[in-house]
Design goal:
By secondary structure, the chain is mainly α. The protein has one domain (about 15-125). Helices cover about 95% and strands about 0% of the residues. It has helices spanning about 5-10, 15-125. The model has no long low-confidence stretch (mean pLDDT about 90).
């Protein structure tokens, strides 16, 4: 039975040249295919990179727009917060003034009640 070594030996020099030529053709074909794969990979990578960069640019624009809007609304929020604070201070002042008015009205009401009693007493005394 022939061994592996026996199979690889070529006794005919013409056959050896044909095999070398065939191997050379195969190697060139493989090189060509590898070159094509490399070029296609490079082209695909460039397209993918371009596509990703475009998407990143779109996302960057969207985030910038979002940041601008968020900043604007944050400023509005703080302005409104300041107005609420100012209104709260005004309400405290108004409440104090209202309390003063109520106290004065209470005093006037007490005087009116006292005068009503005095009028009743005077009417009773004169009758």
């Amino acid at each position: 039975m022939p061994t592996k070594k026996d199979k690889t030996k070529v006794s005919d020099p013409a056959s050896a040249k044909e095999i070398q030529h065939y191997n050379a053709v195969l190697i060139e074909e493989l090189k060509s295919q590898f070159q094509m794969v490399t070029e296609n990979t490079k082209t695909s990578e460039e397209r993918l990179t371009k596509n990703m960069n475009e998407r990143f640019a779109e996302q960057d624009d969207r985030f910038k727009t979002f940041e601008i809007i968020l900043k604007y609304h944050t400023e509005l929020f703080w302005k409104n917060d300041k107005r609420w604070e100012d209104n709260g201070k005004r309400f405290v002042v108004i409440e104090k003034k209202l309390d003063t008015v109520i106290e004065k009205l209470d005093k006037v009401s007490e005087k009116v009640d006292r005068h009503d009693q005095e009028i009743h007493l005077l009417k009773a005394a004169s009758a």
